[in-house]
Amino acid sequence: MSNKIQTEMNKIEIPKELSKRSRIGIDKAKTEVGKSNNKKWLAFAAPGLAAIIALGIAGPGLLSNQPPVNHVIQTVQTSHAFDVTDPQRLVGWADNVFIGKVIKMSGTSEERGMLETQFKVEVAESIKGELQGEVTVNQQGGYDGKKLILVENDQLLKEGESYLFISRKNEEHDFHTVVPVYGDILINSEAHKEELLTKYEKAYQEEIPFE
Fold first, then answer.
1. pTM confidence score
2. Does 69 map to a domain?
3. Same domain for 157 and 97
4. Residue 65 domain-assigned (yes or no)
5. Strand-strand pairing, 162-170 and 175-178
């Protein structure tokens, strides 16, 4: 059985567009199948090689909700095509503006060389757009091994907390990507929630469309 799995693993062609980190992860998965005689490992590997490829792409530790011990924070700066501090312009750029509660982290990905983290969010109130129920919010940054990457020091979303989200739809992945800092505002009280609702409902009425 082990030789058969090894043969199938060696048939996998690693796409050139994958990052170096992802390629290393897949190569390591191939090697481990060849070395392991553990029946539990083989039972995991045999049902689908795609699962191992996904593990290689995600990288070690990225799908854990628990932060690594003694992690190192790395802050990344970015630029924007408009003034994200202006609520009218920010809402004009967005497909959706809504209040939602974070249920859990659901995955990670790498888009144009940038690590991103996805969260399942329950929509509570919608200001712009018609989102309902559970959606996937996509936030730039996340854990890469023992390194925590934060875009403009935008802290990762926390399970159980409610936020005002300002997002744009990623049709390919069905994600709702938020603007760092200004697109995921933590709600700290009912009064704060009402204040944000008033502010962004007004911004929606006076929005400046992004062109």
1. 0.68
2. no
3. yes
4. no
5. antiparallel
